[in-house]
Design brief:
Layout: H1 18-48, H2 51-59, H3 62-76, H4 81-106, H5 110-133, H6 135-138, H7 144-172, H8 174-195, H9 211-224, H10 226-256, H11 261-284, H12 290-308, H13 313-341, H14 347-359, H15 362-375, H16 378-399
Helix pairs in contact: 1-2, 1-7, 1-8, 2-5, 3-5, 3-9, 3-14, 4-5, 4-8, 5-14, 7-8, 7-11, 7-13, 9-10, 10-12, 10-14, 10-15, 10-16, 11-13, 12-13, 12-16, 15-16
Length: 402
C-alpha cells in the first residue's frame, strides 16, 4: 500500500507543524515524568529492600519487555499506532492510580514495587513498537531526520528536568506524589494523541495472517533486505558495545582511580549536554546519505570508549563529550534513516527486534563486560569493545549504498 495521502501536498514546514510540535512536547513531558518516577522507584526500593532486592526492582521490568516485545511489534504492524499508544498510556495511569491508593492505605512495600515495575515493562512492550511506527505516518520522508533530532533533543532536556524533579518529589512528598506526577504526564501525552496528533498517511493494510506468521515474515524481510538487515545489526552493535562501557567500565575506572561520585556525575552531565548539542546540529544539517553519515560519526564514539579505559581524568571528560556529541548526531541520522529505509508494513516488527538488544541482551552484555574486566582490566576491556564497535560501524557503512 502506498504511504502517500491527499494531505501530503498541504503539509506545513516542520518548524511550523503544530501537530508534530504537540507530539514532541507531550512526549518530553511524559519522559520527564518517567525519569522522575524511576528516581522515586529507585529511592523507595532502597528504603524498603536489601540492595539485591532493590536491584531486582529496577531490573525486573526488562523481563516482560523482552518477553513481549516481538509480540508487541507484530501488533504494531496490525493495529492503529495512535490508539494503541493512547490505550497504553491509560493503562499506565490506571496502574499508577491503583498503586498510589495502596501506598496511601498500606505504605510502600517490595511486592508493590515489583508489581508496578512488571506491569510497566509489559505495557512498554506494546507502546514502544507502536510509537516507532508513528513518525513515518506524520511527516514527509525528508523530515524524518529533523523529527528524530527534535524528539531526541526534547527527551534529553526532559531527563535534565525529570531527574532533579524526581529527587525533590520523593524527598518532600514521597512515592505517592511521584506516582501522581507521572500519571499526569501520561495524561498529557494521551490527550495530545487523542485530540491533536493525527497521522497524515495511511498505515499499511494488515496481513491477515496469524501473529506467529507475521513474526516469521518479519525475520524473512530482514534476511532478504540487506540495507534493513545492516541497520539492525548496526543498532545491535551500538547498544551492546557502548552501554557496557558507560554503565560498567566508566564506573569501574572512576572507582579504581578514586575520582569520586562527583566526577562520575560530571562525566554524565558532559555527555548529556554534548548529546543535546549533537541533536541540535542534526536538526540543521541533513547529509545526503544519513545512514552512512550516522555510522561514520560513531567511529569517534568508539574512540571515546577506548579512551575511557586509560586516559587521565580531564581526557575522560573529553571522551564523554565525544561520546555524547556523536550519540546526539548519529542517533538522529540513524533513527531517521531507519524510518526511511524500513518498509512501512514491517516497521513495528523491525523496531521490536532492535529493542531486544536493550531489553533482552543488554543484561548479558553488562555481565560479560564485567567478567572481562575481572579477567583483564578496565583499559584492555574498553579497548577491545571500542575496537570491535569501530570495526562494526566501518563494516556497516561499507554495506550501505544510500
Amino acid at each position: 500500500m502506498s504511504t502517500a495521502a491527499p494531505e501530503t501536498g498541504t503539509l506545513p514546514p516542520l518548524r511550523r507543524d503544530r501537530r508534530v510540535h504537540a507530539w514532541i512536547l507531550s512526549g518530553a513531558v511524559s519522559e520527564a515524568g518517567d525519569v522522575a518516577w524511576y528516581i522515586g522507584l529507585a529511592w523507595s526500593a532502597a528504603q524498603v529492600a536489601s540492595p539485591a532486592a532493590a536491584g531486582l526492582v529496577m531490573g525486573i521490568g526488562a523481563l516482560p519487555r523482552a518477553l513481549f516485545l516481538l509480540f508487541g511489534g507484530a501488533l504494531a504492524d496490525r493495529l492503529d499506532a495512535r490508539r494503541t499508544m493512547i490505550a497504553a498510556n491509560l493503562g499506565r495511569i490506571a496502574v499508577l492510580v491503583a498503586a498510589a491508593v495502596v501506598v496511601a492505605s498500606a505504605g510502600v512495600s517490595l511486592p508493590l514495587l515489583l508489581t508496578v515495575a512488571v506491569l510497566f515493562g509489559a505495557v512498554d512492550a506494546l507502546y514502544n513498537p507502536a510509537s516507532g511506527t508513528l513518525p513515518r505516518r506524520m511527516v514527509r520522508s525528508d523530515d524524518l531526520v529533523p523529527l528524530a533530532a527534535g524528539r531526541q533533543l526534547a527527551n534529553r532536556l526532559a531527563v535534565f528536568v525529570g531527574a532533579p524533579l524526581g529527587g525533590l518529589l520523593v524527598a518532600h512528598g514521597g512515592l505517592m506524589t511521584v506516582m501522581v506526577v507521572d500519571a499526569v504526564s501520561f495524561g498529557v501525552i494521551a490527550l495530545a494523541l487523542a485530540f491533536v496528533v493525527r497521522p497524515r498517511f495511511p498505515r499499511p493494510a494488515p496481513s491477515g495472517h496469524s501473529i506467529r506468521r507475521d513474526l516469521s515474515e518479519g525475520f524473512k524481510y530482514l534476511r532478504r533486505d540487506q540495507v534493513a538487515r545492516t541497520l539492525v545489526i548496526a543498532f545491535f552493535g551500538l547498544n551492546l558495545c557502548v552501554g557496557p562501557v558507560l554503565a560498567v567500565g566508566l564506573v569501574q575506572r572512576t572507582q579504581l582511580d578514586g575520582w569520586g561520585s562527583a566526577s562520575l556525575g560530571l562525566f554524565q552531565a558532559c555527555s548529556g549536554i554534548c548529546a543535546a548539542a549533537g541533536a541540535l546540529i542534526a536538526m540543521r544539517w541533513k547529509p545526503q546519505r544519513p545512514a552512512r553519515a550516522g555510522l561514520l560519526a560513531l567511529i569517534p564514539q568508539a574512540a571515546g570508549c577506548v579512551m575511557i579505559g586509560f586516559v587521565p581524568r580531564p581526557l575522560v571528560l573529553v571522551a564523554m563529550g565525544m561520546i555524547g556529541f556523536t550519540a546526539g548526531l548519529a542517533s538522529a541520522y540513524l533513527s531517521g534513516a531507519f524510518q526511511q529505509t524500513i518498509e512501512p508494513a514491517y516497521l513495528g516488527r523491525t523496531s521490536s527486534i532492535v529493542s531486544l538488544s536493550d531489553d533482552g541482551l543488554m543484561p548479558l552484555a553488562m555481565t560479560g563486560f564485567g567478567a572481562l574486566i575481572s579477567l583483564a582490566d578496565v583499559a584492555v576491556s574498553c579497548a577491545l569493545l571500542g575496537t570491535a564497535f569501530a570495526g562494526l560501524m566501518v563494516w556497516s557503512a561499507s554495506r550501505l549504498r544510500s
